[in-house]
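Researcher: Please predict.
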Amino acid sequence: MKKRSYFHKVLNHVALTIICMLLVSIGLQAQEKLYWVSNSPHQVLRSNLDGTDVDIIINTLEYPTGLAIDTANEYLYVGLAGDGDGNIMKVSFDGTEVETLINTESGVSAIQLDFNNGKIYYALIFDNIIKRADLDGSNVETVIDPANSPNDFFIDYTESKIYWTDYFDGFIKRCNLDGSDIETLISDQLYPCHLFFDNQNNKMYWSNYLGNNINFSNLDGTDHQVLISGLSNPVGITLDLNNNHIYWASYGSKSIKRADLDGANEITLYTSTEEDIVFWTLKSTIQNNSSAGNIVSFVPFELHQNFPNPFNPETTISYKIFNAYQVNLEIYNLKGQLVKSLVNKNIGRGTHSVTWNGLDNDGNSVTSGVYFYILNLDTKIAKVRKCLLLK
């Protein structure tokens, strides 16, 4: 029963249209979370997507501002913006593990993780610089200098571009990753705060702190429109494209809000009772399958399509992992029953392959039909593909 339940859970991640997946999807949605920071009082908080079950993850970091989420390994990266200095902290999801990853001499306003290349990018708003380092904090280097008052940024690796909000001057700009060809895409904004990118639809969204609105445009800045106006100092934003929702943190009303992507049906999910609370960055673990987004839910491995497919009597399954993990690779049938365990051991980074000869765990030949092969790392994250055996 445990194996079958797990099978159904991972199938839902790739949106396979099986009736039993509809039931599991309800449970998975409940596991998705909103994360936000308050730099007064100093807190990193979390809630369900409907604003319930709010809990404080950690309240011992001074002036948290930037935030990135590594859902695969269950860590938060928190940027601090103290008086003239700041750090990047690595914090476990339960707040019990805290590590100073990078010491900086300026406030860290935004963070983006790049697990495929083993990098962490971060913006120093008062030094007008965007930097990067290895994920362990070593090999720090400057990426963009100057990047005027970068409050938030996004890296488009496909086009090798970096976008950022010029908070104090009211621009949204972009340039090449080497800092060349800086161009202004959007101007005359009132303290543009945070960005969210929908690469599938070539759109970017941002909040205007003093403009009291949320905007969107094409990635080149054309077709600029105001999505929602009349807000109270909106700051961090995140989108749930699959369910047609946009979330934002309201500095002025001390609340977390949600609306439809057309701006309708605005509701308040949570309001703080803290008298002097200052909400800032808002992120989420929502899986936007239609968008690269900047939710940074990183899965540090690839599962390739088996070859040949269809096959008889055997096929090869290849996968790539970017760090050493406990790897499990298993075959399931359409009923969710475990058919064959192919891999169950610690494996180092690199590309690996294994052959399935069409036999089950008892050495019996299986019948023709569709089968699913599931790869998971440390039992936390998984990918699934399907194959076809034809005899």
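Model: The two ends are 29 Å apart (CA to CA).
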